[in-house]
UniProtKB/TrEMBL annotation:
This is Mitochondrial intermediate peptidase. The lineage of its organism: Eukaryota, Metazoa, Chordata, Cephalochordata, Leptocardii. Binds 1 zinc ion. Its EC number is 3.4.24.59. Its main location: mitochondrion.
């Protein structure tokens, strides 16, 4: 192992020459540690120190993301007008284009024209702290969405694409990616029912509109607290919740409460069935099924899974059931351990209920491993983690992350960092805007936005991709850099996996660039990065105490990894249940029973803890909106990532040969190739349900 590590240790020492921290006294007499910022690399400095405020009085405003129209909120209207004009010209050109690859190229130009403003606006409406900018971006999302709906029913466009797909000679003359993109555009068309007779096409349009409205209504209901009369709770419990007049407001399940009674009350009240919410869900599921059948699919799941790694619902259900069967023995052992602890903690009520596992799994981990996330955080300063990612990527992909100075008006907050991703021989591959720090009003979830997709331009140049990563970390202070808990560090690696997918893709068409691929494939690169984040050989390159320069002790990482494996089976078993529920809801209709009855039956069959009468967990399952029939993707992508890690990277996580092959076989193609075939080409074997299930089980046993 020393031979593997030596060159990387040397590289990191060169990147991160350090001096002794100096102990000084602050102006108020407190003793603090101050690190000499000159010892950090430019990348580490960019993320470990606060950005100096700059006066912009005489600097030209270049507009958000250097889009000249976006110097003010009103600029979104100008950007919309420009899009509408360009789209009109491209529609005319496409309708009159000769049958051949030019049709695909024009379709992709049209898609790019729309996405470059719509995707940017979708990001800005979420991240921009200025309400006027956010509102203008929101309106642009609505307006371009309406334009897209018009284009989806444009018969001239549809006919041009249909002529191409029916011309066997023209299709045979095109490369694989062009054929796939043409088929994907047709798939998008037919979802709108454009190929149907007038009456049915109008019905498809109405169903699409209804599905959007119902999904929005369901999401609102998911996040709505339950208000119950104070009289339903005994006095010793009612004031454990928010009290509003004669009502008790239950906002969540209080899973971390040490009181069994509070957890039970919160679970039963928060998940109490809401008849209106159940009607919304059942109407949504029915509308999706009607739309799928109208456009030629047996079920909504069949329509959704077309073009994915899984291929069809039958494969998904086979995978989920096999995974559940493989997990159940370990799951029951974990539940038994929880019962033992509960019997000591609450001898009068030793039975285990669905409201218990979140609390007791955390309690037992803390008791067994004595892990305090704050003890790990000093080893994971944000700048050090970014240096570690840079070191890893330089070995795997021969790229570096280089901080860039931003121009006036280019970013929406002064603490947003811009990185250029630069390849040793290929030059700039793309740009990543890192919006990592907390601020008032900023959403607290982590996500990846594509601002501009990569594609081949007419002049032979490549339109380089631009993405935004949004995380939620405390900003650095004058005396301390941003320190990450192990979970925050792992999330950083996960999101950078998405960013690398976008940066390293080199597709001909932006419609399939980077993460624009099937969900069960899009999560593979990000989940794979979590394995790197748990490998001591990787962490030892950068995980150093920000004050003492001490490397993270290996036994601390070992304890952390062991704690993560404890109760992993029961947690995964629960995800299997949710994924099966999702598949059944989006399978054959009519369902024959209420969604609550179906959930109860499936929980009793696939989880290991019985369903609680008078509760309806599925009415809080917001993933049914955005991930309808796709929730399995989280589990399948983890299985694929596990197989990739063990077969390709576990022996040497810094292998440049394997990294280049991974880019060539998988990352470079985005959604431009069949995802299953890409994985099989990388693994040099066919994917089977048995292999994927075994990968998940192997992770539990390591």
């Amino acid at each position: 192992m020393r031979n593997v590590l030596r060159p990387y240790n040397r590289l990191v020492r060169l990147l991160r020459a350090r001096t002794e921290s100096s102990r000084v006294l602050s102006s108020v007499g407190r003793a603090v540690w101050v690190r000499d910022v000159a010892t950090w690399s430019p990348l580490g400095t960019a993320f470990n120190t606060k950005t100096a405020k700059r006066l912009n009085l005489f600097r030209e405003n270049v507009g958000l993301f250097e889009v000249p129209e976006l110097t003010s909120p009103s600029g979104f209207q100008r950007a919309e007008a420009k899009v509408a004009q360009e789209a009109s010209e491209l529609v005319t050109a496409t309708q009159s284009a000769p049958t051949g690859i030019q049709v695909v190229q024009l379709f992709d130009k049209l898609s790019d024209t729309l996405c470059r403003v719509a995707d940017l606006a979708d990001c800005i409406r979420v991240v921009h702290p200025n309400a006027k900018f956010a509102h203008a971006a929101q309106q642009t999302c609505f307006h371009i969405g309406a334009l897209v709906e018009q284009l989806n029913t444009n018969i001239g466009l549809y006919d041009a694409l249909k002529r191409l797909l029916h011309d066997e000679t023209a299709m045979a003359s095109m490369d694989e990616e062009s054929r796939r993109v043409a088929e994907l555009f047709m798939f998008d068309f037919e979802i709108s029912g454009i190929h149907l007779p007038d009456l049915q096409r109008e019905m498809a349009v109405r169903l699409n509109e209804d599905i959007l409205t119902l999904g929005s209504d369901f999401s609102k209901g998911v996040n709505t607290p339950n208000a119950v009369p104070k009289s339903v709770l005994p006095d010793h419990l009612k004031y454990c919740f928010t009290v509003d007049g004669d009502k008790v407001i239950v906002q969540n399940m209080h899973s971390d409460s040490g009181s069994d009674a509070i957890r039970e009350a919160a679970y039963k009240l928060y998940l109490h069935p809401n008849p209106q919410q159940e009607r919304v869900l059942e109407t949504l599921l029915t509308a999706r099924n009607k739309l799928a059948q109208l456009v030629g699919y047996p079920t909504f799941a069949h329509r959704t899974l077309k073009g994915t790694m899984a291929r069809d619902p039958e494969t998904v259900m086979s995978f989920l059931k096999a995974t559940g069967e493989g997990l159940i023995h370990r799951t029951m052992e974990e539940f038994s351990l929880m019962r033992q602890y509960k019997a000591k903690h609450s001898p009068s009520n030793p039975n285990l209920y669905p409201w218990d596992p979140p609390y007791y799994s955390a309690f037992i981990k803390a008791d067994r491993f004595k892990i305090d996330p704050t003890e790990y955080a000093p080893y994971f300063s944000l700048g050090a983690c970014m240096e570690g990612l840079n070191c890893l990527f330089s070995q795997l992909y021969r790229i570096s992350l280089q901080p860039q100075e931003t121009h006036n008006g280019e970013i929406w907050d002064s603490e947003v960092k811009k990185l250029a991703v630069i390849h040793e021989t290929e030059g700039i591959l793309g740009y990543i805007y890192c919006d990592f720090f907390q601020r008032p009003g900023k959403p607290q979830h982590d996500c990846h936005f594509t601002i501009r997709g990569g594609r081949q331009l007419d002049n032979g140049d490549y339109q380089i991709p631009v993405v935004v990563l949004m995380l939620h970390y405390p900003p650095p202070t004058m005396t301390k850099p941003t320190l990450l808990t192990p979970g925050m560090m792992e999330n950083l690696f996960h999101e950078m996996g998405h960013a690398m997918h976008s940066m390293l893709a080199r597709t001909r068409y932006q419609h399939v660039t980077g993460t624009r691929c099937s969900t069960d494939f899009a999560e593979v690169p990000s989940v794979l990065m979590e394995y790197f984040a748990s490998d001591y050989r990787v962490l030892s390159q950068f995980a150093r105490h920000y004050q003492t320069d001490e490397t993270l002790p290996e036994d601390m990482l070992r304890k952390l990894c062991e704690s993560k494996k404890l109760f992993q089976a029961s947690e995964l078993q629960q995800q299997v249940l949710y994924a099966i529920v999702d598949q059944v809801y989006h399978g054959k209709h009519p369902l024959g029973k209420s969604t609550t009855e179906i959930f109860a039956e499936l929980q009793n069959k696939y989880y290991g803890l019985p369903h609680v009468q008078g509760t309806a967990w599925q009415l809080r399952f917001n993933h049914l909106v955005g991930y309808g029939a796709k929730y399995y993707s989280y589990i399948m992508s983890r299985a694929v990532a596990s197989r990739l890690w063990h077969q390709c990277f576990k022996d040497d996580p810094f292998s440049g040969t394997m990294g280049e092959r991974y880019r060539r076989e998988m990352l470079a193609h985005g959604g431009g190739k069949d995802p299953k075939l890409m994985v099989e080409s990388m693994l040099q074997k066919q994917l089977s349900t048995e292999d994927l299930v075994q990968s998940l089980l192997d992770d539990l046993g390591e």
